[in-house]
Amino acid sequence: MDSRTVFCCKEHVVRQSRRHHGRHHRMNRLENVTVVVTGGGRGIGRAGAVAMAAEGAHVAVLDLDGDAAAEVVAQIEAAGGRARAWRTDITSPEQVGSAVAEVVEWSGAVDVLVHSAGIVAPAMLKDMTLESFERVVAVNLTGTFVCLQAVLPHWMETKRGKFIALTSPAALRGQVGGGNYAAAKAGVVALVKTAAVELARYGVTANALLPIAATEMSAKVREDPKLEEKFLSLIPLRRWATAEDIAPSLVYLASSDSDYMTGSVLSIDGGRTI
Ligand SMILES: NC(=O)c1ccc[n+]([C@@H]2O[C@H](COP(=O)([O-])OP(=O)(O)OC[C@H]3O[C@@H](n4cnc5c(N)ncnc54)[C@H](O)[C@@H]3O)[C@@H](O)[C@H]2O)c1
């Protein structure tokens, strides 16, 4: 049977095709929306780019790894979507500025910025070098600011925009061996909340997504069974999500469904931050 029955109330019975609940079924929630996804070459950014393209978005994939970005574009195009890759270091205002200008030339606008690029460099505070601290802050926090500032003049002109930045449970709880990362991701939350208040007058919303997912970034935890057991024991749902499990929340935040949401932190973390 290809349909399911949804009982809305006694009088109304709605039949919906099961196909429409398939994750990768093309729908139109992001028709004519141009999305820039930083860190879109891998992990959560990649899954978000693919999911948003399946909803009709034109997706600009920015990543330090140009080959990975090109692969994502090929995947999107093979599924009938529209995307283009830029090899971009998001810590460079020059590179981000020229990529954003080229995106506007390519697609006519930048409606949504998903800032997913991020790195970790684990060390205990007593051993952490200043260089490691500054590098992690540069990519995770300063890079968020650089990308936001690059799209801002465009948003102030068009009087609309959606800023979505990736934060972490570390931002709210701290992280043993990740003081640099936790500090940077807490800064991202503060930046998002500031943007929500400052930019509301231009029709711009700003929200943070707080995930946990089995990606390359979290691979070290999964390689060590003891560490993984401890990690999962702190998650009420006791399991990992995939990057594809996180992607629908990016679609939601990028779509008009979330228009009245700003300054929020949306946790898709199995309950880790309760
Ligand atoms: N995976 C998790 O459990 C988890 C948890 C909390 C927060 N996050 C956050 O979600 C985001 C995505 O994480 P992920 O797990 O997909 O990571 P990932 O390591 O799989 O992917 C990160 C991507 O960012 C790119 N990148 C790194 N530095 C860059 C730079 N300077 N310029 C451009 N691109 C750069 C990498 O090439 C890579 O494609 C990150 O901001 C991360 O901090 C992830």
Summarize the structure.
With 274 residues, the protein is of the alpha/beta class. Helix content is 44%, strand content 18%.
Ligands present: nicotinamide-adenine-dinucleotide
Secondary-structure element pattern, one letter each: EEEHEHEHEHEHHEHHHE
What is the chains' assembly state? single chain
Strand order of the largest sheet: 5-4-3-6-7-8-9
Structural class: alpha/beta
Rounded mean pLDDT is 92
Indicate the low-confidence ranges by residue numbers: 1-22
The largest β sheet comes out as: 7 strands, parallel
CATH architecture: 3-Layer(aba) Sandwich
For the record, what is the CATH homologous superfamily label? NAD(P)-binding Rossmann-like Domain
Count of domain modules: 1
Count of runs of 4 or more consecutive helical residues: 9
Q: How far apart lie the N and C ends?
A: 40 Å
Give an account of the 3D structure.
The protein has helices at residues 43-54, 66-78, 93-107, 130-158, 169-173, 179-199, 219-223, 225-233, 243-254; strands at residues 3-7, 13-17, 34-38, 58-63, 82-87, 112-115, 161-166, 204-211, 265-268. With 274 residues, the chain is of the alpha/beta class. Strands 5-4-3-6-7-8-9 form a seven-stranded parallel sheet, with helices on both faces. Strands 1-2 form a two-stranded antiparallel ribbon. The longest helix has 29 residues, at 130-158. The radius of gyration is 19 Å and the shape is globular. Residues 1-22 have low confidence and may be disordered.
